[in-house]
Write a structure and sequence with these properties.
With 448 residues, the protein is an alpha/beta fold. The protein has 2 domains: 207 residues, Rossmann fold, CATH 3.40.50; 113 residues, P-loop containing nucleotide triphosphate hydrolases (Rossmann fold), CATH 3.40.50.300. Helix content is 37%, strand content 13%. It has 16 helices and 13 strands. The protein has a 7-stranded parallel beta sheet with strand order 3-4-2-5-6-1-7, with helices on both faces. A 6-stranded parallel beta sheet has the order 8-13-12-9-11-10. Strand 3, helix 5 and strand 4 form a beta-alpha-beta unit.
């Protein structure tokens, strides 16, 4: 199937051709026709499946077809509500790319920056508004935003909205929207509280589900390195000597950790920047632009700051620290290997993080191959000490981390070439090859 098969108008097809996109992803192929039929939509799709284009393209088409009905100043007819600044900006970029020949205007509003440019754009009139909840409510209170003419409403990344505590803000926005409108609801997970929220928004929705959150793309080559925490920095710098690590997104658990890792990488002569919530908005946008344009080779990010990062041909994702929620691992590595492209995900696992790895492998229903022919392997003593610590924590009533030391991963990877000493836990996985998979990256559309 191609985009031509989806009954899209020529201005949008022309823009897609300019961008080099010819083949829709599954969620685009399923969603676009339903939205063009003006149906409410409940979409379950994780990051990297192409959902931004799945709603942006039909919104542009529906509004373009009604442009002749307008007189006077433009009124906001489509509202896209999203949890983070980065994702809002990325959606704005997508709207600009696909809508360049439609004559429609959009703007993006978010907090953390002065509001004047945003309010100037609103005064001039826009058709499509992309917003984060806090700044939207603020500008509504100041009478810069009027939503009584909304015809299309999108709630994007609803699960993250709830995680970040925005549910009450979302409900405040919903109260002022017209009752008669087309609503689109997207979430990576469908927990009961998510379904309850969707029921309050959607009317007889069509349902689309692709790539559940528990799965990882087959195009992503995953590997794990057992390594002590203090040695992770040295291992990362060792790996970055490989020139095939062209564009690398590194995940840390904390903002301070992101700054420290980026500083260490830069000291070693590799261009690197950090992106997280404590950075000024202008600094975050600049760091992301530098990464997209390949001025910066390594971007170090926290999980929330990484939402909405959409980079073509991202070669590697590195989990510098494993997340304590296995679903977060799926979201992280989904930044590479997007929409059919190949990618590599490398994870650093300290002895105390083995329970996290066990939980991840249980969620994704596969074992992550271990690479143990590297300069900083863990020893059997390291694992024994960590296991003893977990045991003591449990005796004192602590959780001791997710997972269990009784469920150590057993893998199916092939041993890497060359001699290697395996220091994995008893019954642990054999090491797998970590070389990049060669081959062409088929460019289907890959907005998140």
């Amino acid at each position: 199937m191609t985009f031509e098969n989806l009954n899209l108008i020529e201005p949008i097809l022309k823009a897609l051709k300019t961008e080099g996109y010819t083949t829709p992803t599954p969620i685009q192929a399923k969603s676009i026709p339903l939205i063009l039929e003006k149906k409410d939509l409940l979409g379950c799709a994780q990051t990297g499946t192409g959902k931004t284009a799945a709603f942006s393209i039909p919104i542009l088409q529906l509004l373009h077809e009604k442009q002749g009905d307008d007189r006077g100043q433009r009124k906001i007819k489509a509202l896209i509500l999203t949890p983070t600044r980065e994702l809002a900006l990325q959606i704005g970029d997508s709207m600009a790319a696909y809508g360049k020949h439609t004559g429609l205007k959009h703007t993006v509003i978010f907090g953390g920056v002065p509001q004047k440019k945003q309010t100037d754009a609103l005064r001039a009139g826009v058709d499509i508004l992309i917003a984060t909840p806090g700044r939207l409510l603020d500008l509504m209170a100041q009478k810069y935003v009027h939503l009584q003419h909304i015809e299309l409403f999108v709630l994007d990344e609803a699960d993250r909205m709830l995680d970040m505590g925005f549910v009450n803000d979302v409900k405040k926005v919903l109260k002022v929207l017209p009752e008669k409108k087309q609503s689109l609801f997207f979430s990576a997970t469908m927990a009961p509280e998510i379904m309850k929220l969707s029921d309050s928004i959607l009317v007889n929705p069509a349902k689309v589900e692709v790539t559940p959150v528990s799965s990882t793309a087959n195009t992503i080559q995953q590997s794990v390195y057992y390594v002590k925490g203090p040695d992770k920095r040295k291992l990362l710098l060792h790996l970055l000597k490989d020139e095939e690590m062209e564009s690398v997104l590194v995940f840390t658990r904390t903002k301070r950790g992101a700054d420290r890792v980026a500083k260490d990488i830069a000291k070693a002569g590799v261009t690197a920047e950090a992106i997280h919530g404590n950075k000024a908005q202008n600094a975050r946008v600049r760091a992301l632009d530098n990464f997209k344009s390949r001025k910066t080779r390594v971007l170090v990010a926290t999980d929330i700051a990484a939402r909405g990062i959409d980079v073509d041909d991202l070669s590697h994702v590195v989990n510098y620290e494993l997340p304590n929620e296995p679903e977060t691992y799926v979201h992280r590595i989904g930044r590479t290997g997007r929409a059919g492209a190949s990618g590599i995900a490398l994870s650093f696992c300290g002895a105390d993080e083995v329970p996290y790895l066990a939980s991840i492998q249980k969620l994704i229903s596969k074992n992550v191959p271990v690479i143990d022919n590297h300069p900083f392997p863990l020893t059997a003593k390291d694992f024994a000490e960590a296991a003893s610590t977990v045991k003591e924590q449990k005796k004192k009533g602590g959780r001791g981390g997710r997972g269990s030391w009784g469920n150590k991963p057993s893998g199916d990877g092939k041993r890497s070439s060359g001699s290697a000493t395996s220091n994995r836990p008893a019954g642990g996985p054999r090491n797998g090859g970590g070389n990049r998979t060669n081959g062409n990256r088929n460019r289907t559309h890959q907005s998140s």
